[in-house]
Amino acid sequence: ILRRCCGKQMSGKWRNEQFPEAKQAHDYNRTEYLHSPRYHGCAMYDIDRVEDLFLQTPLYQKLVSHPQLEIVARPSQAD
What does the pLDDT look like over 38-67, one tens digit per residue? Predict the structure, then answer.
């Protein structure tokens, strides 16, 4: 969810919905797209809550507890 709905890997169609002035992806029929298996689904999530929950997972806790994995655990500065 976080990869698909945030940052550089964000769905182009979701990016268009968030930043309509930028229009980086081609126009599309949103109603048809909602029923497509390729629909990103980002609008149904509270992204801040998803991120908070991820930071509480055992996986994330293990990543931050090992110095050699620090680069994997920290947020990207490019997004």
Answer: 777 888 899 999 999 998 999 888 888 887
Give the C-alpha separation, 57 to 29, whole Å.
37
The burial of 15, by beta-carbon neighbours within 10 Å (0-12 exposed, 13-18 middle, 19 or more buried), is given as middle
- DSSP reduced 3-state for 35: coil
Residue 26: pLDDT over 70: no
C-alpha to C-alpha distance for 25 and 63, rounded to whole angstroms: 34
Q: How far apart are CA 35 and CA 22, in angstroms?
A: 24
Output Rg (C-alpha) for the chain, integer angstroms.
15
